[in-house]
Amino acid sequence: MSDLDRAAHALLRLPPSCGPVRLVAVDGHAGSGKSTLAARLSTVLGDAPVLHLDDLATHEELFAWTDRLRTQVLEPLSRGATASYRPYDWRLRRFGGARTLSPAPVVLVEGVGAGRRAVRPFLARLLWMERGPEQSWVRGRHRDGPEQAAFWDGWTVAETRHFARDPSRAFADTLVRECQEGYDWLPGPAVTTGTHHVVTQGHDPSSMN
């Protein structure tokens, strides 16, 4: 059994955290490998739904997507209903047509800030990609090419400010380190300091700030 298979089985054993859903966040610096990990976990979970926070953010609101996440995704899932959201088109600078997100046993939400303070009460597990900011940003810039250099200059400032105000790593249940083959899964600060808590599926997402 691979490390991803073991991780998937462990996630399925967790109690639901948002209605019938085990909401699992994959957080980390931009370029750290979050979307790749989420895609691989989704596959071993039988194509579990994945929400990319890039679809909720905009050029003007890189981190001000909490209300959209609550009303379009968390509130429906907490009722066991299918969520519907309109992903942002980064090229056209506008929101597109609606997409749906089913209340599957596990739903993955990936992106910078997925483990932010307002979201943590609804998470069954918070995974943090264990790669430093500078190394992550170099990977991201290489991936996106020189035409996105100006965006990355602004992004690194915004991300640094976000994590200074609302850190995620300190509350992670698991630190995930990419290896040549697979991943290492290490206990996160929330486990080693005893700060992790499980919220029952009856939690009301409308109480988010």
Overview of the molecule:
- It is built from six helices and ten strands; from the N terminus they run αβαβαββββββααββα.
- It is α/β, with parallel strands linked by helices and 209 residues long.
- It has one domain: 3-Layer(aba) Sandwich (Rossmann fold), CATH 3.40.50.
- The strands form three sheets. A six-stranded mixed β-sheet has the order 2-7-1-8-9-10. The chain has a two-stranded antiparallel sheet with strand order 3-6.
- 36% of the residues are buried.
Q: Short summary of the structure?
A:
By secondary structure, the chain is an alpha/beta fold. Helix content is 32%, strand content 19%. It has helices spanning 3-12, 34-44, 66-78, 133-144, 149-165, 189-192; strands spanning 22-27, 50-52, 83-85, 88-89, 94-95, 99-101, 106-110, 125-129, 174-178, 183-187.
Please identify which CATH superfamily we are dealing with: P-loop containing nucleotide triphosphate hydrolases
Please provide the count of β strands.
Answer: 10
**Dominant shape:** globular
Q: Rounded to an integer, what's the Rg over CA atoms? A: 16 Å
Low-confidence stretches: 196-209
CATH topology: Rossmann fold
Q: Supply the helix-strand structural class.
A: alpha/beta
Q: How can the largest sheet be summarized? A: 6 strands, mixed
What tags apply to this protein structure?
6 helices, 10 strands, Rossmann fold, 32% helix, alpha/beta, 6-stranded mixed beta sheet, single chain, 209 residues
